[in-house]
Specification:
Elements: E1 5-18, E2 21-28, E3 31-38, H1 40-45, E4 54-63, E5 71-82, H2 100-105, H3 107-110, H4 114-136, E6 140-141, E7 147-148, E8 160-163, E9 166-170, H5 175-181, E10 187-195, E11 208-217, H6 221-242, H7 244-250, E12 262-265, H8 266-275, H9 288-297, E13 301-305, E14 328-333, E15 336-343, H10 348-357, H11 366-371, E16 379-385, H12 386-394
Helix pairs in contact: 4-6, 4-7
Length: about 425
């Protein structure tokens, strides 16, 4: 396009005056361009211009002598569209480090930092890959309610609110809805926000999080583990291939994980921890310290399978050969739990019995149980924490870094 006239718009990243020459660095979401202005008229056009102001430039493309630009735009007209007021709350270029709270308070400006922007470009491509993989496996994308009338999984960690004159809650998962949908659609997935009223102050917990959920009729838990493995591997392959600039900005190299993912039973995990001097009884839950020790033995992604029934929700199916164990799994990356899933109960009599065993009132689940009399197929599924997956993909420990506007027990703004 050398010698052609163009019109470009963007944000002023740098301004350098050299006598009657002015050099501007202009950035938009696609990259940077150098703008050259010559003469006193050009100086007048840029009077009052500040960094991060928005401008429109009309000019001609020419070769550049600059080290960082093969070509530049020689401007003949600049329109200042919006002036950025200084001082800015953070340095969006990243030359001056800001702590995460200051950056989150000015999140829109923080996205001018190319390292921050790279995270959310990667997140976009990860979602493209997930939708592509699941669609190719005949899953249909659905949307379920986030305002619900009863505790969706019987848990206590729900946000409650008044819904006109009724009691309502924010959904903590689409579990019961996606199970019901297998009657008519067989294979469904949803990518949406969910809510947990947990006062957890860690770098991996949020009160609002994005979950990728699937449910599939006529699949066992080993089948949906295969689906989950494909989703993860495809995300890494897709972003490794399509996000080279983002990897460079974050100084990471995305590599396809080794497959198949290792599958370790809960019983085997207890035995391994025993070899490390950690004595646990069958039925004990695995705490952070235990999972960290297992993560040292099993690097990368691995499944923990066949958990004790007493540690799992009411809708999980028991194993035929040992009713004390469940057809369930967690997907781990080291100590970090990314996903949980399993085969669900589809027998309404067993389901009611399990609700009572866990101290839950079947009457509160009448709408859900009714669907099981309409021909509920055997089905399995899982939920995957997208934010935690992004932490692994970007090699960033704090999950707040990979969420645009994170919500935790202390943060409700902006």
């Amino acid at each position: 396009m050398e010698g052609k006239n163009v019109v470009v718009g963007g944000w002023v990243e740098d301004i350098r005056e050299l006598g009657k020459l002015i050099f501007l660095t202009l950035r938009d979401v696609t990259g940077v361009a150098q703008i050259v202005l010559v003469g006193e008229d050009s100086l007048k056009q840029t009077k009052g211009l500040t960094k991060q102001s928005v401008i429109k430039v009309t000019g001609m493309i020419q070769k550049s002598k600059a080290r960082d630009f093969a070509y530049e735009i020689k401007s003949n007209k600049i329109d200042i569209l919006t002036v950025a007021i200084h001082p800015l709350p953070i340095d969006p270029i990243g030359r001056l480090e800001s702590n995460i709270d200051n950056r989150l308070n000015a999140r829109a400006l923080d996205l001018r930092n190319q390292k921050t922007a790279a995270i959310f470009k990667l997140r976009h491509h990860a979602l493209v890959s997930i939708r592509k993989t699941l669609t190719e496996k005949s899953f249909l994308e659905v949307n379920t309610p986030k305002l619900i009338g009863s505790a969706s999984e019987g848990g206590a960690n729900l946000f409650s609110l008044k819904y006109f004159e009724k009691q309502a809650y924010l959904a903590q998962s689409p579990q019961l809805y996606k199970e019901q949908l297998t009657i008519g659609l067989e294979r469904v997935f949803e990518i949406a926000s969910y809510y947990r009223a947990e006062k957890s102050h860690t770098i991996r917990h949020l009160t609002e999080f994005t979950s990728v959920d699937i449910e599939a009729a006529f699949m066992d838990y080993s089948d949906v583990m295969d689906v989950l493995e494909s989703v993860i591997v495809d995300v890494f392959e897709y972003t490794a291939k399509n996000c080279s600039a983002e990897q460079k900005a974050l100084d990471i190299e995305i590599k396809k994980p080794s497959i198949p993912f290792e599958r370790i039973t809960y019983k085997k995990a207890i035995e391994e921890l025993g070899c490390d001097g950690i004595k646990l009884e069958a039925g004990d839950d695995l705490q952070d310290a235990h999972l960290r020790k297992l993560g040292e033995r099993h690097l990368g992604f691995y499944f923990l399978t066949d958990w004790p029934m007493k540690l799992k929700p009411f809708y999980i199916h028991e194993k035929d050969d040992d009713p004390s164990l469940s057809r369930s799994f967690d997907l781990q990356y080291g100590y970090l739990e990314l996903s949980s899933g399993g085969t669900r109960l589809h027998n309404p009599v067993k389901l009611k019995s399990r609700l009572i065993e866990q101290g839950l009132n079947p009457v509160q689940f009448e709408d859900h149980l009714r669907a099981f009399d309409w021909g509920m197929p055997p089905h399995s599924g899982w939920g995957l924490g997208l934010d935690r997956l992004m932490s692994v993909l970007t090699n960033i420990d704090n999950v707040r870094e990979v969420v645009l506007y994170p919500r935790d027990p202390e943060r409700l703004f902006p």
